[in-house]
Specification:
alpha+beta; 9-stranded antiparallel beta sheet; 4 helices; 9 strands
């Protein structure tokens, strides 16, 4: 009996530790109009921080297998991260359109409708509750083309955009853009 109580207390303790190891930055408040995690706010803050830090990147751009890599500094981070900024789902019109799951240090938003452009967002936080990584899956289907995009951003490490596009009656294209922060 004591062994069962001891195991239950350990289980509760570990559960409490896991719940406090990663904080949840998602709130619903009428004061600040936050419905989901705000990618817009996060990436706007990142563009300011990166503009001030002015890091050197090793940037690779590839189209249909042909690639080029350069070491450079980005002069316009808002433009560089525009695919991430445009993926924000924190809008009143999106309330109820995404399933929200909290797993360990991840907040996962999954679209409940297949016609939504942003199909999945995974926010990974470190143990201090700061965003460590963002992964986004986007799908666009229309009469002219179909596009599947995978976006990954790891704070102070890298960002990557993989895009596969099928243009009706023409061809398929694949794009890859990756920026690796140097000296990290």
């Amino acid at each position: 009996m004591n062994n069962l109580i001891y195991r239950a207390l350990i289980g509760i303790g570990i559960g409490a530790l896991l719940l406090t190891a990663c904080t949840n930055n998602v709130t619903t408040s009428s004061n600040n109009e936050r419905y989901y995690f705000s990618l817009d706010s996060f990436f706007r803050a990142e563009t300011i921080r990166l503009t001030q830090a002015n890091p050197t990147l090793e940037k690779t751009v590839a189209k249909d297998g042909e690639k080029e890599t350069k070491s450079l500094k980005i002069s316009n981070w808002e433009n560089e991260l525009s695919s991430f900024l445009s993926s924000d789902i924190n809008k009143k019109a999106n309330v109820g359109l995404y399933k929200v799951q909290h797993l360990d240090c991840d907040i996962i938003y999954t679209a409940l409708q297949p016609d939504l452009t942003v199909q999945k967002i995974i926010i990974t936080e470190n143990q201090d509750g700061q965003v460590h990584a963002v992964r986004i899956e986007k799908i666009t289907n229309n009469m002219l083309y179909n596009t599947v995009e995978q976006l990954v951003y790891v704070t102070d490490s890298l960002y990557a955009i993989d895009k596969k596009q099928h243009i009706n009656l023409i061809s398929d294209n694949t794009y890859h853009v990756e920026g690796r922060f140097q000296g990290k």
